[in-house]
Every structure is written in structure tokens, then in C-alpha cells.
């Protein structure tokens, strides 16, 4: 029995949910305006700090997953530095449908092809869904940066103060996976 597509409403335009993320098209994103708008709405900045280095997602590689109707399902921004890859942002616009998993797997594959030995990601202390996603895909905790977001917020005051389920955001957790 096939699942009928459902219309989802939330922030931004309504999108049609597709039952199978495998049917989504993966492609490089050159127009990053949608990603930047999502970053500003979700985080308050389009810059991310990983491994104590700041990356502007407007200036680094981005991948997108697009539903058969052309709507955006997920976006990710990543880059290489040395022999490490850094996942700076991953946003699923279809939560709970496996899209984030497919996007993460696509970034892992792109990093491998680029010659990365490790892929690193950073999440804030409130991001329980992100911690779950990364650890279920094999990432291990590799660093805890107490008050890192507070310090970053002093330079970028638009960074949000509360996140998932109203949890105050103060700290950053680094995760990595060997490739």
C-alpha cells in the first residue's frame, strides 16, 4: 500500500511530502539564497564555527535534495580544510521523513570523494535531534566547548539564545566520523 503525499505547512511555503527520500534529486546548490534565509531564521547568522574556525555558508560548497515536484527537501553546506571535511549546516525541510539521513549520507560521500579522512560537525547543546542523527550514523563526540556560543554571540549578537524545546543555548559539541 503506497502512502499518499500530504501537504505540510510550517514556516515558509507549503511543501508536498514524498514518502521516499530516495526519489529526491541530489545536486550542487549554486544559488544559496534559500540556505542563507534558513540559516538566518534558524540560527540568526549564516556563519558557523567548527573546530574553532568560522565558516560563512555563503562562501563554501552546498548540496541540496529536491523532491520530484522541485521543492527543496534539505540543504547542507560543507567544506574541506586540510584532510578534514567540515559540515557547517544541515537543514531538513521535511522532518521525520528520512531526508536528513539521506542528506548526511550524501555529504559523507562527497567528503570521501574529495579525499577527506574525517568529517566534523558541530551542534549546540540544545540540538537533541542533531545529536541523535549524527550518533546514529556513526559520529563520535570529539569536543565540548563550554560557553562557546555565548562567546560567539558576543561577536554576532543575532545568534539565537534559545533553541530546541526552549533550551538555552550556551555550549557547542563537536562530533566526527572517520571516512
Protein model, in words:
- This protein is an alpha+beta fold and 179 residues long.
- Helix content is 24%, strand content 34%.
- The chain has four helices and eleven strands.
- The strands form three sheets. It has a seven-stranded mixed β-sheet, with helices on both faces.
- A hairpin with a 2-residue loop joins strand 7 and strand 8.
**If you average the pLDDT, what whole number results?**
88
Bulk shape:
globular
Low-confidence stretches: 1-19
Q: If you compute it from the alpha carbons, what radius of gyration comes out, rounded to the nearest whole angstrom? A: 16 Å
Strand arrangement in the largest pleated sheet: 3-6-7-8-9-11-10
**Proportion of beta-strand residues:** 25-35%
Q: Give me the secondary-structure category.
A: alpha+beta
Oligomer kind = single chain
Terminal-residue CA separation: 37 Å
SSE string: EEEHEEEEEHEHEHE
Our count of helices gives 4
The percent range for helix content is 10-25%
Number of strands: 11
Largest sheet properties: 7 strands, mixed
Keyphrases for this structure?
single chain; 179 residues; alpha+beta; 7-stranded mixed β-sheet; two-stranded antiparallel sheet; globular
Topology:
Blueprint: E1 7-8, E2 15-16, E3 25-28, H1 33-43, E4 47-50, E5 53-56, E6 61-66, E7 72-81, E8 84-92, H2 99-113, E9 118-124, H3 128-136, E10 140-145, H4 148-155, E11 172-178
Parallel strand pairs: 8-9
Antiparallel strand pairs: 1-2, 3-6, 4-5, 6-7, 7-8, 9-11, 10-11
Amino acid at each position: 500500500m503506497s502512502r499518499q503525499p500530504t501537504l505540510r505547512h510550517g514556516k515558509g511555503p507549503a511543501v508536498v511530502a514524498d514518502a521516499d527520500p530516495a526519489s529526491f534529486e541530489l545536486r550542487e546548490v549554486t544559488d544559496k539564497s534559500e540556505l542563507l534565509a534558513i540559516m538566518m531564521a534558524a540560527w540568526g547568522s549564516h556563519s558557523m564555527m567548527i573546530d574553532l574556525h568560522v565558516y560563512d555558508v555563503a562562501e563554501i560548497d552546498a548540496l541540496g535534495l529536491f523532491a520530484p515536484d522541485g521543492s527543496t527537501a534539505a540543504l547542507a553546506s560543507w567544506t574541506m580544510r586540510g584532510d578534514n571535511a567540515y559540515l557547517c549546516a544541515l537543514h531538513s525541510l521535511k522532518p521525520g521523513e528520512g531526508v536528513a539521513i539521506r542528506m548526511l549520507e550524501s555529504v559523507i560521500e562527497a567528503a570521501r570523494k574529495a579525499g577527506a579522512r574525517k568529517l566534523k560537525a558541530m551542534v549546540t547543546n540544545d540540538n537533541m535531534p542533531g545529536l541523535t542523527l549524527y550518533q546514529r550514523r556513526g559520529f563520535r563526540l570529539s569536543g565540548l566547548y563550554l560557553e562557546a556560543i555565548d562567546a560567539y554571540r558576543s561577536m554576532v549578537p543575532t545568534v539565537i539564545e534559545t533553541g530546541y524545546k526552549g533550551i538555552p543555548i550556551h555550549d557547542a559539541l563537536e562530533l566526527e566520523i572517520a571516512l
